[in-house]
Structures are given as structure tokens and as C-alpha cells.
Amino acid sequence: MISRAHISENALKVLYRLRNAGFAAYLVGGCVRDQLLGREPKDFDVATDAHPEQVRELFRNCRLIGRRFRLAHVRFRDEIIEVATFRGSAAPPDQADGEDVDAEDEDDDGIAESDVAETAQLTDDNVYGTIEEDALRRDFTINALYYNVEDFSVVDFVGGMADLEAGMLRLIGDPEQRYREDPVRMLRAVRFAAKLGFRIHPDSEAPILELAPLLADIPPARLFEEVLKLFQGGCALATYEQLRHYGLFEYLFPQTEESLEHEEEGFPLTFVARALRNTDERVNAGLPVTPAFLFAALLWEPLRERAALLQANGAPRMEALQRAADDVIAEQIRSIAFPRRFSVQAREIWGLQPRLEERRTKRVSALLDHPRFRAAYDFLVLRSEAGEGGDEAADWWTRFQAGDEAERGSMADEAGEAARGRRGRKPRRGRKPPGGANGAEATDEAVQATPPAVTGEGDDDQGQESGGGRRRRRRRRGRRGGRKTPGEAPTPDPA
Ligand code: ATP
Ligand code: MG
Description:
Layout: H1 9-20, E1 25-28, H2 30-36, E2 45-48, H3 52-58, E3 62-65, E4 71-76, E5 79-85, H4 113-122, H5 131-136, E6 145-148, E7 153-156, H6 160-166, E8 168-169, H7 175-181, H8 184-196, E9 199-200, H9 202-205, H10 208-211, H11 220-231, H12 236-245, H13 249-252, H14 254-261, H15 267-284, H16 291-298, H17 300-312, H18 317-332, H19 340-358, H20 364-368, H21 373-385, H22 391-402, H23 405-425, H24 437-448, H25 464-467
Parallel strand pairs: 2-5, 8-9
Antiparallel strand pairs: 1-2, 1-6, 3-4, 4-5, 6-7
Helix pairs in contact: 8-11, 8-12, 14-17, 16-19, 17-18, 18-19, 19-21, 19-24, 21-22
The protein binds adenosine-5'-triphosphate and magnesium ion.
């Protein structure tokens, strides 16, 4: 049913070498599913009865990864083929240890020490199983199809072919038990439903609303990986709508959920939706996307609200923005590990907003060279499209970029004139009115000093890159409302 012509050369090499050595070897999972649906697979996974050490002996370019369950990565120039030994029911749930990292080579990867201790026990032979056991421990029936290169057949133990034809996403086994075993499967259900346009079977759908709070126990590092798959797979908008529908979104972005609930004039919804649609367009056009932009967009409304509050209490605009950024990020990383290199960039995107709006510096063209200019400009345009204002500035920057050197020169001169004019009319010293022209004067200095000085409040996200797996212990003070308890979640009825 699947022609070999559509299978990666490298995957075929791996399959044949395993077979020639006397082992069973099949393609399995997303690559079989996607090929049967006429889609191009993201990557190729192989399942085999060879043990990881036996796989390693067959391939020079092979590396064993994973602490709780060993997998072999066979590396080719531009592709890695993941080879997993059939798992029995005693094996830990898939990827439950977050990002798989070679235990020997990396020591500071954010995976808790306790996982290391478990390695010996979990790599024992008792975690391996037959192909049928391997099928049963997978998540959805359509993800448990095995492709046999020998005779081009698809091996199906769980009714996956019928579900594939019916456009149905169905968990294997008892749904509630399978979600409890690994709550990330709820996110996967939504992701595949949105990506493939499938329906979630009523039995698989029913427990989600009630079990959504279990996501709170997933390590933040793993949730970060999942969030990227949810929002950078080309179907972010549809996925986001489904996540909200099933009451899952609030466990990923609690602050965003909160601001969506008291949205004014539909702005936040429009903004987030626009940002996600923009991300989808970029992904589908093959353009790069960054988690920094995604998080900057998802957290923008909570940030604005927090900054407005601080400004109302007398903080100058730029300082309010920075402190709000510290708070919002510190709160966010309690649920999702947002690596520091990205949070620094998100702050830059936010910090550039007032600078792009005000164009106060004579050297506006220097802003063009800022490494985050492009992202910040896109962000500004989205804001203006979403009706947040800043239209004039967005237009100005669009024209400025399109202009030739002479046009840019005169536009920059005008901007400089305007800035000097504004400065000339205002007193230069004394108490600065919040958000006024002088308040904004702090803008340039503050943002140029990127990465922004980390204040005491912001310490929470330091070391994110290396310690992403750690739960943030500190409770945020002064957050209005707080995280809802699961019982109160006003979620729509999925029926
Ligand atoms: P994608 O197109 O996103 O790669 P995929 O189905 O290949 O989709 P992966 O995360 O690459 O998803 O996982 C590969 C396979 O491993 C899945 O098809 C499924 O059979 C199994 N699997 C992955 N995660 C889980 C899980 N949490 N529980 C059970 N099985 C899982
Ligand atoms: Mg895959």
C-alpha cells in the first residue's frame, strides 16, 4: 500500500540492514499514518526486536539516547532515523522523561537526577516486548500501524486502518486510564485532530475536560517541547481553538486564559488568533519561526495588563514594561519551561514596541539593524491589524523599509526633527509623568541595554536553559484572580 519510492532512503537502509541481520524491522507511527493519508512524513521511526546494543553494533553512525528507555538514533547527513525496540507493558510511557538526551554525553540537560537512577532498572529486558505489545502501548490506533518493507503490507493490531479511513482519532485501551498514565496524550489528541482534521472519538473525548488538570504535573521542560509541536506545526490557530474548547489551554498559558476571559472589545482574542495565523502562514511557506515570537504574542495581553497596572501606580512606561515582563515570564515558567535564550528575545520584541512606535531616536535606521527588528516589526503590524493602535507607526516602518537610501534619510531626519521638537517643548528634569514623553525617553536607553537587566523579580527564569525541568517553586504575589481550580473552569461542552 505504501510505495517504497515515498520512503526515505536512509529509513530503507536501516530497515534492510536490520532484516538482513535476522531481526524484525518495521516503520511505525506518524510516518506510516501520514503516508497512508498522502501527507509527507516529518520523520521516520523504526520499530524492531533488536535490542539497542544490537542496533548499535549494526550501525557505525549510531548513538543510544534516552535515560528511562533506550532508543537508537542512526544518524545520516541530514536525517536521524529513530530505532526503538518493541516495548512491553512494563516500559515507561513514551517520551515521559521529556527530551531524550544521551545520558553519557550531556550532564546538564534539565532532567532530574532521579531519572538517572532509574536507568538501570528500566533498561532491563523486562521492558521489551512483542510487536503486538508494542502496538498496544502506543497512543492512538492510527499511530500504531506497522509497515513491512518485505511485502509492502501494513500490520494493524488495533483497528487503525478503519479509523484512518473514518477520520477518527481513538485511544488504544481505556481512555481514562491512558490519559492518567500520560496526560500529554490529551494534548496529542488535540494536535492530531487539528492537524489531520480528524474527529476525536466520543469515548476518547469524554474524559478530557475532567482530566485536563493533570497537565499541571507534567514537567515544564516536556510541556515546552509539546507546545512547540502544538503551535509550530502549521496548524496553530486550529489547535489553539481546540485547546480552549477542551479546557487544556488554561493549563499551558494560565495568564493568557485569564486575560481572554476579561477581554475588552475582542482585542486579545483577535491578537492571539492573528499571531497564530501568521505563524501558520510562515510555517506553511517554509519560513522560520521562533518560540520567542510565539511566547511574546501569547503573553502580550497579560503583559500589557500588568504594565498598565504598574504605570497606574507611578512606574515610568519602560520600567513598567520591564517589570511586567519579569513577572509574566516568572509566572509562565511555572508551567512551561521557556528557555532563557527565548525569553530574552521575547523581552526584546516587547521592548522594541515603544521604540518603534515613538521613533524618538535620530538614528531610526539603527533600529533596523537590531537583531530583533524584523520580529518586532511583524509584532507591531499584528498589533495594528488587531486594532490595538500603532497603525501610523506600522505604516511608517513599512514605508521606511521599502524606501531607498534617500527616502530613508529624509524619513529619519523628519523623525529626528519630530523627536527634538517634542523634547524641546517638555521640561527635561523633574518628575516624569508616567507614559508621557519623558517617561518614554527612558525607552531608548532601557532597550538598548539588552538583554535587559534582570531585576530581583526576574531571577526566576535564570538558568532556564540548563535547569528547564525544575518546577518553579515561588508563588507570584499580587496576581489578580490566581489560577482557577479545575472545578470552576468555565469550559465549553465539547459535545
Ligand atoms: P508527528 O507527525 O508529530 O511526528 P508522530 O505520531 O510521529 O507524529 P511522535 O511524537 O513522533 O508522533 O511519536 C511517534 C510514535 O510514538 C507515535 O506515532 C505513537 O505511536 C508513539 N507515541 C508517541 N508519544 C506517545 C505517548 N505519549 N503515548 C503513547 N505512544 C506515543
Ligand atoms: Mg514522528
